[in-house]
Amino acid sequence: MRLRLLFLPVLLIGTHAFAQSASTIDPYQYTIRKEVTVQHGAVVSAHPLASHAGARILQQGGNAIDAAITTQLALAVVYPGAGNLGGGGFLVGHLSDGRNISIDYREMAPAKAHRDMYLDAAGNANTTLSQEGHLAAGVPGTVAGIFASLPYARLPLRKLIQPAITLAEKGFAITEKEARSLNAHAELFKRLNTKPTRFVKDTPWKAGDTLIQPELARTLKRIRDKGMEGFYGGETAAMIVAEMQRGKGIITTADLKAYKAKERKPIVFNYKDYTLITMPLPSSGGIVLQQMMGMVEKYPLSSWGFHSPQAIQLMVEAERRAYADRAEYLGDADFVKVPVKQLTDKKYLEQRMQDYVPNKAGSSVAVKAGAPLHESEQTTHLSVMDDQGNAVAVTTTLNGTYGSGVVVGGAGFFLNNEMDDFSVKPGVPNMYGLVGNEANAIAPGKRMLSSMTPTIVLQRQRPYLVVGTPGGSTIMTSVFQTLINILEFNMPVSQAVNETKFHHQWLPDQVDVEPDFPAGIISSLEQMGYKVTPRRSPIGRTEVIRVNNKGMLEAVGDKRGDDSAAGY
Ligand code: DON
């Protein structure tokens, strides 16, 4: 069944595999598919048009990396709140030849950035400046990330970028959620932008309206025709720098020229019979995930059962401890020494749980960062698998929804507000309430600590799961819980993704729960001494692909957004 967006502003949720081929989709009339089960290749992302573009590339002979590139570029057009050219991200891949890779294209502090740049004369942090407008932007990494991914792809960039160009040039019908989100941000866009943007119009947006982005299409064409230079040099760089000058930002031509994506050694660890491949620093995601999985591994979670108070309490206490370590120790390892080996050592993780008392709430006053022995951390995730044994997890971000709110005049894309992911002052929470320390202080050229956790799970050395999510500080706990739901509680993928989630991040000392979290569990936790805080917003938008026992790919998009799966 299909929805005519132009006529019906409610998206229909499909649950069946693409009955029609992945070869055609009408950008003015399309369907959200929460779940597909397919044989050859699957893509799941935050938007049906992006997932479809990626699945089509798979069908045309591309591998999972090709599809990830196309899906990311399409998201930069159809999902402007988080899909991006002006932000950054991380790619984790398992290749058919057995190699594991990770590519870091996190934004970088400009050369003129400094430790106290968001403090006023009295030393107070002004987080409005790190969250809104030109000064909030780090040097964008996404385009460099695309070029660093290309050597692993099969098809030329010209082909991979074309769906994005067509969607930007010809336009597409926006979803109801996008219309609401654009309307909610209209005043911010008007206040922060020095030139008119395509994202504000005279009358409110509604589902089915067409968004056309000619400036963005031209930027994409420059990238297609001139490569890295099409973004980090020439006309696009000049537009970014001119935008900075109009808005008192500090990114310069030299900053753009100096930006490099970095291949990193991924974090690889075992959980029971599974091998997990995930993102190293400057994301805290992989380390924190490894810590939480390591802290719960020896406990009988599966026999306690899903959402049993015991299981939730154990997981909350693991979350508390891992986030405390994050705040103290984690930052860009190219700038600060981080005791990664010690923090992820199995013995250390066992010791960390020694003061965990079953049925009694721990306290973030008592539980501080651990003491590892010295040596002798709006976003969007996409998951892809092909039929050659390649699996790719990409999480990419502008940080807040629509990033800094600033669209580069003439170039048509939003700039990130990722500078807020640095610790602007020790102990001052960022927009996700995370606190940090010297390890994550601002320095020129340094990359701000992230929570993004793109993760692949192998079983018998073959791709089994691809998982990841947006959600700021909740990313790591969402990935953790989704994995535990599947690996320990044997849940079907869609249930594992859509079940209501909880979150503890050390400070503030409270368990955040989604609005639909069962009241009975809340009172069990309260009886143990926990402060439980229902949130207004949901936790995460998790995208999972799993290989089932018939070798078919089950791809599931989170119910919490317009997330959609595609494949063939
Ligand atoms: O890198 C990070 O950890 C954050 N900038 C992610 C932000 C995010 O997930 C927003 N999405 N809801």
Keywords:
7-stranded antiparallel beta sheet; disordered N terminus; alpha+beta; binds 6-diazenyl-5-OXO-L-norleucine; about 575 residues
Describe this structure in words.
Helix content is 32%, strand content 16%. Helix 2 runs parallel beside helix 5 (157-170), helix 5 packs antiparallel against helix 7 and helix 11 crosses helix 16. The strands form 5 sheets. Strands 3-20-19-15-14-11-10 form a 7-stranded antiparallel β-sheet. Strands 9-6-5-13-12-4-21 form a 7-stranded antiparallel β-sheet, covered by helices on one side. A 3-stranded mixed β-sheet has the order 16-17-18, covered by helices on one side. It is globular, with a radius of gyration of 22 Å. The chain has helices spanning 48-59, 64-78, 127-131, 142-149, 157-170, 176-192, 214-226, 229-232, 234-246, 253-258, 285-296, 301-304, 309-329, 340-343, 346-352, 475-487, 493-498, 519-528, and strands at 13-14, 32-33, 35-38, 42-45, 88-94, 100-105, 172-173, 210-211, 262-264, 267-271, 274-278, 379-385, 391-397, 455-459, 462-468, 502-503, 511-513, 532-534, 543-547, 553-557, 564-567. The protein contains 18 helices and 21 strands. With 568 residues, it is of the alpha+beta class. The structure holds 6-diazenyl-5-OXO-L-norleucine. 6-diazenyl-5-OXO-L-norleucine is lined by residues 377-379, 397, 399, 418, 421, 450-452, 470-472, 475.
Q: Output the number of helix runs.
A: 18
Q: How do the strands line up in the largest sheet?
A: 3-20-19-15-14-11-10
- Helicity range: 25-40%
Q: Report the strand count.
A: 21
Which structural class do you get from the secondary structure elements?
alpha+beta
* Strand content bin: 15-25%
Shape: globular
Q: Mean pLDDT across all residues, rounded? A: 94
> Main beta sheet: strand number and arrangement?
7 strands, antiparallel
The poorly predicted ranges are 1-21
Instruction: Name the ligand types.
Output: 6-diazenyl-5-OXO-L-norleucine
Radius of gyration: 22 Å
Quaternary class: single chain
Distance between the termini: 17 Å
